[in-house]
Amino acid sequence: MTQDRLTEKTFVEKLGLKTAPFFEVSSGTQAREAFGKLNGKGILKTRRFGYDGKGQAKVVSADEAAKAFESFKGAAAILEGFVDFSCEASVVAARGQDGAFAAYDPPENEHEHHILRRSTVPSRLTPAQVDEAKAIAQKIGDALDYVGVFAVELFVARTARCWSMRSRRGSTIRATGPSRPVPVPSSSSISAPWPDGRWAIPAAIPMR
What we know:
Helix content is about 20%, strand content about 30%. It has about 210 residues and is α+β, with helices and mostly antiparallel strands.
């Protein structure tokens, strides 16, 4: 479920958690058609294995989308609409065989060159946003009937009301997904207050 970005996003949508727009891409022609449904820019990603910016390409035209797909050498892909996020937060949670759920308060994550550099707690999320982030993680864990430790990464968009989701699994799972949280992949410094925004969930990456 969490190793394929298309399968994962479809699953999240069925839970009622909105994601960034996404489209299956299996050919250059399909990449062009999918780009035409976006608002001017997107990110083409391989459906499996990409991590830390690998297997991903930002595209701003139908031609770029088609060329990016060709660069993946035939690997199944997904085109995601671009999410204008303020920062990223993640919920690290645990779920027992009896369905019992517990989670740490979400840290605020800062990335550098597509790689997580630091996570800071406490974050600038409001108490209501923290509760909402944990509720999202619990909903995903319950739907998967997952037992163990997992993490859900959440983007807070600057203005758009959408989710974008990402998960990691193995001994842990990571996911990402709308609501009214404040700022979240690469947050910047921890000084200024965040603008009002909405959550967004990204795509699956197996734990290494």
